[in-house]
User: What shape does this take?
Amino acid sequence: MASTDGTPMINRQWLLARRPRGRLQLADFAYRAGPYEPPPLGEGEILLRNRLFRFSPAMRGWMKTTAQNVAPMAVGEPVLGNTTAEVIASRAPAYPVGAIVSTLASWQDYQVIDPAAAAIPPRIKPVDVTLHDFEGVFGTNSLTAYFGLLRIGEPRPGDTVLVSGAAGSTGSVAAQIARICGCRVIGLAGGPEKCAWLRDVCGLDAAIDYKNEDVGERLAALCPDGIQVFFDNVGGRLLDIAIDHMARFGRIVLCGQIASYDDGDALAPGPRNMMRVVYWRLRLQGFIVFDFIDAVPEALADLRRWHADGRLVHRSELVVGFKRLPESFLRIFDGSSRGTLLLEAD
Ligand SMILES: NC(=O)c1ccc[n+]([C@@H]2O[C@H](COP(=O)([O-])OP(=O)(O)OC[C@H]3O[C@@H](n4cnc5c(N)ncnc54)[C@H](OP(=O)(O)O)[C@@H]3O)[C@@H](O)[C@H]2O)c1
Assistant: This one.
C-alpha cells in the first residue's frame, strides 16, 4: 500500500527502550522508522493513521510491571498512548474510511486495531468539532472531570470544593464545573502563574501554590468549616493534608495519584489520618471515566453549552513534530505543561 501521493508508506515509531526507573528520561525511549506494508485487514478491523497524540499521566503507570488496568507496556514495543486518528482503511462499517476517532493506540504513524476488541470503543469526532477541541475541551479529560465531580463528588450549591492538579487538563475543568454548580472552589497548583490563571481566568475563589505556600495553613484559614468535596488528581502529601480539613460526610474523588507515578513498583504509603475518615464519616471513592460511557452524549452537551456561553474556559498547548513525543511527555511530570498537552504529527 502506498500513501495518497503514491510514495511508499513509512511508519515512524517511538518504542519503550527500557523499563523506566523513577523520573522518566529521554533514554527510556527509542526512535525507529521503516517502510510499512499494512497487513490485510481482518473482519471488523481498521487501519489508523495517528494524527494527534494526547499525553496522559497514567501512561507512566502502564510502563511499570505492576500496571493495573492495562497489560504492562512491553519493552521494545511502541509506547501505548491516546491518539486521535484517521481511519484510512476499514472492514468495520461503524468506522468508515475518513472517520476521525479518539482511541487508545500507540506512538506510531500507522496501526491496525479491532474496535470491537478494544476495552473502550473508539469515539468518532463530530464534524462540527475541531481536531484539537475533540481531544481538548471535549476530550477524555473533560469527561473525567465531569463524571468524577458530578457523579462521585456530588457537589451541592454552597459546598466548598477543593481540586488538586487544578491548573491541569482534568483539574481545571473539574474546578470550573464545581463553580458552575454554585460551589466555592479552591485550587491547588504549582507556581504563581498557574494560581493567578485559576483565579483570574477560571474564576476560582482561591488558589494555593502548593510548591511555595503552607497548604495546611491556607486551608485552615480558607475553610474553617471544612471542605465538602475534594477532587484529587495527585494523592500523597496533598491528600493527607486535605483529609485533615474535610467537613463531616465529605466526599473525596480519587481521580489520580500523579505524585506517586514516578515511584518504583513498590506501592506508595496510604493516607495517614484514616481515623479522621472514620470519625468524620468521609467517603473516598475512585472511578474510571469509562464507567459512565453511556452518559457521554449528555456530558458533551453540557460541556459544549458551558464552553459556548463562556462559563468553561479551556487551555491547551499544541506541540508539532512526531520526533518530539518523548520530550513533550516528560513535561507532564515537571509542571511545565499548560492545560491539555497535545502533539500533532508532522
Ligand atoms: N480516573 C480517570 O478515569 C482518569 C482519567 C484521566 C486522567 N486521570 C488522572 O487525572 C490526573 C490529571 O491528569 P491530566 O491528564 O489532566 O494531567 P495534567 O493535570 O494536565 O498534568 C499533570 C499536572 O500534575 C501536576 N503534578 C505533576 N507532578 C505532581 C506532583 N508530584 N504533585 C502535585 N502535582 C503534580 C503538574 O501541575 P503543577 O504544576 O500544578 O504541579 C502537572 O501539570 C492524573 O492523576 C491522571 O492519572 C484519571
Observations:
- The chain has two domains: 10-136+314-344, 140-290.
